[in-house]
Amino acid sequence: VGVDFGIYYLLLMLEIPTTYSKGLSYIGGIAISYILNQVFVFKYRGPDLRLYRFLALASANMVINIMVNRSSLAIFGDDCINTSFILATGITVVCSFCGLKLWVFRNEEST
């Protein structure tokens, strides 16, 4: 979330349009998320095939994140950038955790 937030605000300060800023910032966070989730959260040391699942989940979550952020800005106005960011991030954090736990890093031996 911190990487996403930092890149998002940097791109907004550079006057990159909101939708592009949100998409690029989300992509920046994906790389960090994969490493941290694989190594520290789920302690998975298996084959790299998980990367494909992770990228599919991250792509779906990016679309959700951008849509929620954009919709929230349309509803609340451009002055509510923080509110829109938090709402979009909160929704995708829940979606992401569920997808990571149940699909990407699931324990194959118990299925």
Task: Give an overview in words.
It is a single chain. By secondary structure, the chain is mainly α. It is built from 4 helices and no strands. The chain has helices at residues 2-13, 18-41, 50-76, 81-104.
Outline of the structure:
The protein has 111 residues and is an all-alpha fold. The protein contains four helices and no strands. Helix content is 78%, strand content 0%.
Quantity of strands, as a count: 0
Mean pLDDT: 86
Number of helices: 4
Shape: elongated
Classification by helices and strands: mainly alpha
Q: What is the H-and-E element order?
A: HHHH
Helix content: over 70%
| Gyration radius, rounded | 15 Å
Q: Report the major sheet.
A: none
Strand content: under 5%
Q: What distinguishing features does this structure have?
A:
78% helix, mainly alpha, 4 helices, 111 residues, elongated
How are the secondary structure elements laid out?
Blueprint: H1 2-13, H2 18-41, H3 50-76, H4 81-104
Helix pairs in contact: 1-2, 2-3, 3-4
